[in-house]
């Protein structure tokens, strides 16, 4: 434990400058309560006065959620991406925060083109002009992790190159380490954060960031998505040029189209907005409810429309996957809600959260019944599908139910697509169009072929378990006979006691070292060892001074925690 603590401390010192920047930004935007839980931050808080107190009226006029969004934007790509993830976590943050974090944007000034050329040279192990006859120095777009350039390949013709920003991987990894440290501190120091498991959220976020930083994973996602809709004339995915792609560089065919949000440009190109909305909605539902593998960030910049109303998906840095079992559970929940069956809907929600073995949740069924009564007694066309799911999330949060992480991404995707198709066609009924796909999944559960496959699989697993049972019984009997049987159990509510014992042990060790320091200093002074200052041995005097500082530190710690 001591080694782990020492290692965490050395990492904090190693990243001290970044910690200082983070503390400074949180202080600047008035988040002293959060900043003070960062390592070494109390010293920095003491050294610099609060900007709001120094008359920063512009910042002071902002709401607390607005200040959090500004802080995330100032801290860079990892924090922007984290904010976008938190925007979908309604059980973790109040609605005014999630509504504000949705506004986070990921646009930054482009890097110098010479750095882009240097990166391409390093990735392809040859000068860019050997591979490309021309690369446009002006990027098509510049985000926090990468920027995109149009180019002409000597073999493939017109292409688009996505290149990673220099040193971004190291910067993101440092921020991820710091985020994990902050999450651990919040869990340990603020009881209100413990049920939300911030460490688990950061771990999930780190996995997504690793995926975004690996362009070879994005290339694989593009190819998988293309295979998923192979042979369909209504959807397009740019072809990946594997020979010109690496972990930090992605080259794909150039596909020119009109952004799905540019309504006037769509009309000028003779494209049918109603048909685009219908196709985009259907493609989204098929991704999520039929295939399970879906585009994780379908904002207007990533959806282009080609001639004949063909939908082209771009930027597969974020994708999601719903296992069949999760799709089945989600479909069962939506069907039960649509049928206004609160009992079945409650059971489906508990099943989706994997809480079947937990004690019944008092009031959960009543909340579901109230939810159905509020939203499903009026015209269906007035319902907002993603908002319904957000309301269900709030119910799960109220009853301490934890849904699979991918469900949050599904809700984010549905919200983005609903906003886009609503702009394309105000009469588009999102819930009605989703119905057939949900009912199809729900109906497939009763198909004879699937039931037979599941029975065969269950039978095979049962036979294997029965085959292993005699050996398991003999193993347990042998452990009981030899006295080697162990029972693992956990007693809830011991965390405060553990913290008290750990703090007491640390203070006791500190006091022993302090006593040893005083005794050693006394022996040195008594021996009269040179060098001396005014007749007193300098080494002994220094020991006394150091011991006094240690004693003061111990005393301050005890006073601050209210335990003398």
From TrEMBL:
Transmembrane spans: 508-529, 535-559
Signal peptide from the UniProt entry: none
GO MF: transferase activity
Pfam family, one: ABC1
Keywords: Membrane, Transferase, Transmembrane, Transmembrane helix
Entries under InterPro entries matching the protein: ABC1_dom (IPR004147), Kinase-like_dom_sf (IPR011009), UbiB_kinase (IPR050154)
Residue span(s) of domain ABC1 atypical kinase-like: 103-346
Similarity remark: Belongs to the protein kinase superfamily. ADCK protein kinase family.
Protein name: ABC1 atypical kinase-like domain-containing protein
UniProt source species: mine drainage metagenome
């Amino acid at each position: 434990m001591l080694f782990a603590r020492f290692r965490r401390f050395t990492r904090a010192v190693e990243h001290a400058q970044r910690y200082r920047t983070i503390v400074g930004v949180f202080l600047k935007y008035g988040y002293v309560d959060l900043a003070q839980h960062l390592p070494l931050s109390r010293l920095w808080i003491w050294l610099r006065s609060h900007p709001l107190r120094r008359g920063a009226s512009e910042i002071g006029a902002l709401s607390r959620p607005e200040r959090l969004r500004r802080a995330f934007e100032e801290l860079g790509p990892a924090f922007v991406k984290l904010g976008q993830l938190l925007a979908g976590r309604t059980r973790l943050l109040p609605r005014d925060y999630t509504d504000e974090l949705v506004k986070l944007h990921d646009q930054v000034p482009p890097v110098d083109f010479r750095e882009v050329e240097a990166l391409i040279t390093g990735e392809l192990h040859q000068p860019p002009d050997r591979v490309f006859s021309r690369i446009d120095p002006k990027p098509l777009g510049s985000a926090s992790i990468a920027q995109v350039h149009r180019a002409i390949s000597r073999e493939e013709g017109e292409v688009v190159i996505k290149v990673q920003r220099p040193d971004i991987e190291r910067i993101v990894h440092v921020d991820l380490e710091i985020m994990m440290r902050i999450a651990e501190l919040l869990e340990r120091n603020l009881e209100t954060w413990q049920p939300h498991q911030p460490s688990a959220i950061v771990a999930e976020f780190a996995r997504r960031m690793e995926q975004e930083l690996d362009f070879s994973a994005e290339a694989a996602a593009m190819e998988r998505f293309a295979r998923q809709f192979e042979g369909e004339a209504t959807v397009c995915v740019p072809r990946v040029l594997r020979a010109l792609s690496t972990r930090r560089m992605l080259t794909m065919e150039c596909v020119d189209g009109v952004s799905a949000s540019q309504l006037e440009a769509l009309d000028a190109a003779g494209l049918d907005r109603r048909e685009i909305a219908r196709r985009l909605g259907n493609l989204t539902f098929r991704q999520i409810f039929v295939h399970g593998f879906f585009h994780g960030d379908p904002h207007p910049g990533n959806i282009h429309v080609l001639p004949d109303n063909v939908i082209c998906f771009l930027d597969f840095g974020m994708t999601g996957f719903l296992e069949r079992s999760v799709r089945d559970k989600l479909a069962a929940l939506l069907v039960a809600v649509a049928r206004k069956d609160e009992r079945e809907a409650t059971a489906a929600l508990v099943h989706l959260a994997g809480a079947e073995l937990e004690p019944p949740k008092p009031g959960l069924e009543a909340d579901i019944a109230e939810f159905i009564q509020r939203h499903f007694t009026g015209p269906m066309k007035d319902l907002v599908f993603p908002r319904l799911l957000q309301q269900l999330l709030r119910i799960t949060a109220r009853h301490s139910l934890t849904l699979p992480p991918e469900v949050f991404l599904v809700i984010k995707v549905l919200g983005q697509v609903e906003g886009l198709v609503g702009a394309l066609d105000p009469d588009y009924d999102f819930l009605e169009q989703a119905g057939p796909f949900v009912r199809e999944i729900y109906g497939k559960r009763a198909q004879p072929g699937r039931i037979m496959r599941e029975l065969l699989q269950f039978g095979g697993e049962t036979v294997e378990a029965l085959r292993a049972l005699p050996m398991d019984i003999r193993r347990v009997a042998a452990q009981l006979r030899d006295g080697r049987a162990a029972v693992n159990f956990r007693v809830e509510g011991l965390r405060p006691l553990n913290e008290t014992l750990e703090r007491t042990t640390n203070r006791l060790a500190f006091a022993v070292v302090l006593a040893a320091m005083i005794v050693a200093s006394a022996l040195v002074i008594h021996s009269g060892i040179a060098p001396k200052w005014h007749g007193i041995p300098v080494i002994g005097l220094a020991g006394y001074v150091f011991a006094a500082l240690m004693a003061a530190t111990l005393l301050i710690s005890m006073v601050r925690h209210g335990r003398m």
